[in-house]
Amino acid sequence: MQYDPIKRSLGKVFNTSPWLRVFFYKMLDLLLLRTYHVRRELKQYAKTHPRADVLDAGMGFGQYSYFLAAHYPAWNVTGVDVKQEQVDDCNQFFEKVGRNNASFRYADLENYTENQLFDLILSIDVMEHIPDDQAVFNNLFAALRPGGMLLISTPSDQGGSDVHHHDDDHPNDGSKSFIDEHVRDGYNAGEIAEKLKKAGFSRSEVLYSYGTPGKISWKLTMKYPILMLNASRVFFVVLPLYYLLTFPFALILNLTDARMVHPSGTGLIVKAWK
User: Fold this and answer.
1) Closest by Cα among 267, 103, 257 to 192
2) Residue 203 forms beta bridges with which residues?
């Protein structure tokens, strides 16, 4: 299923004015479960870090950079992305809204070469798009200062990317990611911890997200709308009504999932320290 064309279409709609863009960010914050888990970790980090230099690695639309710049004005936020149009778009928007503590530039994370510039690095739903993930982990480790933290949100191998394995003895047979742009379906918790250790991180913590409530919410807020929009852009017209009807249920599910400790789940929240 093609996701990037839909993101571009949404971006064009919500870029018509700064207040629409901010509204779009707020809607993403409410609808996307990963935001609940990521913001919880960021708020915990902020308790002991009144000032920080932060890298939003693969910032996309810039919603996490906006949250950081708005809520922590003493923090300096740098966003990088492999798509120049996203970089230009974010620089223009953040200048319009006066968020001067955030800036954006082009970077390919597989070839990123900064050295000890950041206290905190975010990688939110990025690693599943990158073929050479070990190179990126190595590069992000080098970009962190001693004691710095890397925060990752990514699909797990427990059904992440909405992959359904048909044979337990051959888990990759007949399986396909729901999102075509993903180069891997999801990480095993031990696998990603081992790759981070190989990159040089002294310790890591891997938690499951998107448990049973989260799986239902993801289908309501992401899967079904994407299926509709891939079928026809005409469904843009009915999306507001669709979300009006489903949002109360999704909100309850998101809040429930974010408060639970999950023995497994289709997402991972990973923290690693240098």
Assistant:
1) 267
2) 273
**Looking up tokens 């503590």, which residue turns up?**
101
Give the distance from CA 25 to its chain's centroid: 13
Beta bridge partners of 153: 124, 269
> Which stretch of DSSP H or E encloses residue 154?
strand 144-155
Q: Which pLDDT tens digit goes with each residue over 199-246?
A: 999 999 999 999 999 999 999 998 888 888 777 777 778 888 999 999
pLDDT 10s digits, 144-156: 999 999 999 999 9
* Complete DSSP assignment for 237-248: TTHHHHHHHHHH
- Total-model pTM: 0.88
What's the domain count of the chain?
1
Residues spanned by the domain of 116? 4-273
CATH number of the domain to which 231 belongs: 3.40.50.150
Burial class (CB in 10 A: 0-12, 13-18, 19+), 25: buried
